[in-house]
């Protein structure tokens, strides 16, 4: 199903119609919207709730959550265990127009390592800027008060405290952290698909003026994407590897003297195995 809307239409006017159309097309009574925190505005989240639908969202953490502060306070000399999950219920009040919610906070050592490395780099740049060694550019750790420059150590401390933590908010209170976090992590595959369509499939933006042309373009792109993911699933190859390998082999047919001559480059064993997996019994429909 492909939906296209005018560029000047707000997301709140496009999201629910698309969701309802998807539910009608597949005869679904309920769906769960999974999205990153930056993709769903407060208005969209409210609209999802009012429509009676479920959601799993990346949670924004402008301050250190209570459950994280409590754990750190209770374990002052301990490293946070890799994979630790803390649960923070958020029941609806008597006058709230929403369902009960729960937020899961997960810590991973790899995420902490990457985040802390980024913080170190930003703080080092901020210190050089404050010392007058480099121009002041956009840096969240630099505080400007008139002509005075300073390092925002409070913000740095908060950022280091939250390094490695990721929040997941949902109104599926009985689903459990494993299901919620697993569903959110499937977004990585969706993001990978969009990168694939942009780079590997060269599906670049094209300016169309007629709706039929716009929908045709989107349909072709998503059909190519579906075929590409199928090729990856059955061969175990990336679509880039498959295309780059297969495109070097050609079959040529020559009509000469009433005869049809066929010349073909010999296909290596690994490529032939991949082709057999695509066209085998499971792919012959």
TrEMBL record:
Organism: Pseudonocardia parietis
Residue intervals of the Transposase IS4-like domain: 6-225
InterPro entries, per database record: RNaseH-like_sf, Transposase_11
Name used for this protein in its record: Transposase IS4-like domain-containing protein
């Amino acid at each position: 199903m492909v939906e296209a809307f005018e560029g000047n239409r707000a997301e709140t006017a496009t999201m629910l119609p698309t969701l309802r159309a998807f539910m009608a097309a597949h005869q679904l009574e309920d769906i769960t919207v999974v999205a990153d925190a930056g993709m769903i505005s407060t208005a969209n989240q409210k609209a999802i709730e009012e429509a009676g639908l479920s959601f799993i969202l990346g949670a924004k953490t402008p301050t250190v959550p209570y459950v994280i502060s409590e754990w750190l306070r209770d374990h002052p000399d301990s490293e946070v265990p890799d994979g630790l999950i803390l649960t923070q219920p958020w029941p609806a009040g008597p006058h709230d127009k929403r369902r009960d919610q729960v937020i899961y906070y997960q810590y991973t050592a790899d995420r902490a390592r990457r985040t802390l490395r980024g913080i170190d780099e930003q703080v080092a740049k901020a210190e050089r800027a404050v010392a007058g060694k480099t121009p002041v550019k956009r840096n969240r750790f630099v505080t400007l008060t008139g002509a005075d420059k300073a390092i925002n150590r409070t913000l740095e401390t908060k950022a280091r405290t939250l390094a490695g933590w990721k929040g997941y908010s949902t109104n599926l209170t009985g689903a459990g952290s494993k299901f919620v976090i697993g569903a959110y992590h499937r977004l990585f595959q969706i993001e990978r698909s969009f990168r694939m369509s942009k780079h590997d499939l060269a599906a670049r933006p094209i300016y169309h003026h007629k709706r039929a042309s716009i929908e045709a373009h989107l349909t072709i792109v998503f059909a190519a994407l579906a075929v590409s993911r199928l090729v990856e699933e059955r061969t175990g190859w990336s679509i880039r590897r498959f295309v780059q390998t297969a495109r070097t082999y050609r079959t040529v047919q020559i009509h000469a003297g009433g005869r049809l001559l066929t010349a073909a480059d010999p296909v290596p064993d690994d490529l032939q195995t991949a082709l057999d997996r695509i066209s085998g019994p499971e792919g012959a429909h």
